[in-house]
UniProtKB/TrEMBL annotation:
Keywords: Apoplast, Copper, Glycoprotein, Lignin degradation, Metal-binding, Oxidoreductase, Repeat, Secreted, Signal. It comes from Gossypium raimondii. PROSITE patterns: MULTICOPPER_OXIDASE1, MULTICOPPER_OXIDASE2. Pfam families: Cu-oxidase, Cu-oxidase_2, Cu-oxidase_3. The lineage of its organism: Eukaryota, Viridiplantae, Streptophyta, Embryophyta, Tracheophyta. Belongs to the multicopper oxidase family. Lignin degradation and detoxification of lignin-derived products. Binds 4 Cu cations per monomer. PANTHER family: LACCASE, MULTI-COPPER OXIDASE. This is Laccase.
Amino acid sequence: MGLVTWSVGVLFLSTLLLCSADVHHYEFFVRESNFKKMCNTSTLLVVNNSYPGPEIRVHRGDTVFVNVHNRGKYGFTIHWHGVKQPRNPWFDGPEFITQCPIRPRTNFTYKIILSEEIGTLWWHAHSDWTRGSVHGAIVILPAENETYPFPTPDGEQTIILESWYNGNFKKIIDKALAAGTPPPQPDAYAINGHLGDTYGCPTDTIFRMEVDYEKTYLLRIINAAMNEQQFFTIMNHTLTVVAVDASYVRRFKSDYILISPGQTMDVLVSANQNAGQYYMATRPFSDSDVPPVDFITTGIFQYTNFVGGSNASLITLPAMNNTDAMLNFISRIRNTNVTQNPPINVPADTDINRRVFITLAVNDLPCKNSKCVVSDGFAASLNNVSFVYPHIDVLQAYYRNIRGVFAENFPFLPPEFYDFTGNLTGVVSAVEVGTRAICVNYGDAVEIVLQSTQMGAGGSHPIHLHGYSFYWVGAGFGNFNGETDPSTYNLVDPPLMNTIDVPGTGWVAIRFFANNPGVWYMHCHFERHTSWGMSTVLIVRNGSTIETSIRPRPSTMPRCHRT
């Protein structure tokens, strides 16, 4: 019954969108460029010579073609983060999951099919660590026959939070993986490519957003940082959160936001203070025993025609380890029953026919590379399986029934149960490597519980599922209890997300109907954890009709080296 309700609601919404859907074309030229920051010059792979890259600006329900020209030295892919791509996994983008890399001196055109997404998403490279410099915003405006579920803002500004390294992102992770050591911490954080005024280099630039008094602005905030959740604030101004992960939420006010890597938030801010210059600022949040560097990066919220210094000399942000501030913010995120959202259709307890319980851990495995400087290198796992990328993409192997590429036997339960968030003294949890997929049928009602462990340094994990928005129905601290914890679920107004943060000493529960056939990547959006294997693949088998089956494989897909 739940799937039927969802289908009727989406059909109605889709009919409205198709009346005004448009087609857009973009050209991305990806090449190396030099950037000077922190009084150093770094060579980065970027799109159209810009960091961050160009913004894709469309209306809800549109279709976008992006022709990507690889003028660099190595292959890569691009992912359209948060775009569901209905029945269209071929253009989702993760390397060796849905395609092989775009080789140097070649090009590949992506077809991006927008459906019910609204607000802000983003695109980024999905190969090694290249997304650190290859990324940009996707702005999805209301369709021509739609309005905002709040007063139309007077202006808007995209704000991308980033990690800055004085070096090439691919070389940084390649060196760390070869040595079996963790990658280095970032040298700074950035706002729209600017490092602000806190790092001591006189030639560094600061991002400025110019505003008019008594006007209201929509901020489109994206966390593109590599491994850091971020607090963000504008001094002396109140932020009103209106959307998360391209879905409207019940509006709430806050002095700050907390946003995880991969997530997007739409936030209203009114320029209603005394005319002046006010700091905007960002700093990391962490609940790990090995936290990131605690830098504060600044920007300026500047009233038009004001000349003078900053009105707020003291930057107030929650401390990096302020778990209460984290909880206070995320606990207020709720779905909203507005016509601009698809009807809320949470799988009920009686609907659920696929339950998966997944533990998240940082582990170690013998380092066998000739460049190893340690005997045991870092690994990461889901249910004690550390993911290995195959030599051809999983989607092609699945579609063509090529054997030996992946296995359809990802464990639906951890291989062993222990005090996941407690004292692990004496606990030895063996890890295996492999390319193992979660397989479900079209129309299944799925519940996934994600459980953090204290393996490694513990800490949060932002988990992203491609091809879907899911309902975040539950969260808690300690070990998940399947008998009692489901009674605490929010099945009334849970938010729709595509990236959910699993607290370092707790768990989250998500639910969704498997209504998008294909091969979809699920992984931690801390890049170091993905590099170590904290990922898997969700395969949703075809339904019984053409409309419930994967679209045919395009003839233009990049060739894999071994095919």
